[in-house]
Request: fold
Amino acid sequence: MGRLVALDIGRKRTGIAATDIMKIVPGGLGYLPTHQIPEWLVKYCSEEEVEKVIIGEPKQANYQDSESVKYINPVINRIKKLLPDLEIVRYDERYTSVMAQRAMIDAGLKQHKRREKGLVDEISAVIILRDYMEYIDNMSFRL
Reply:
């Protein structure tokens, strides 16, 4: 049993979020240039017990893969090569950037802070993780 880690992979930056060890609360861990994510994840997994990684899967409104998938797949393939035993789950991330912007406005962040794209990516990763956790909780109630 370990943490859940979520990644909002973008062309340039990737937002990172993780749960506490009990998998109760998701929180942001920041963001990194996307090309650094596989090696960062190897280091993180050596320091923390990680159960699985949830990767935001960008879809269009019609459920087709978005253009961004071509940037995400190479990162996933690299992670799989470096950490072959790590479970990777792809999870629909539609509208997370919009929700992240809304959360920043609701939190009262000033406009210059809301323009920080890395912060939007980090909050998006938290939203992906939170939504995934809610989905899993709802599925367990149905069983």
In short: The first helix runs from residue 37 to 47. Residues 100 and 123 are 6 Å apart (CA to CA). DSSP finds five helices and five strands in the chain.
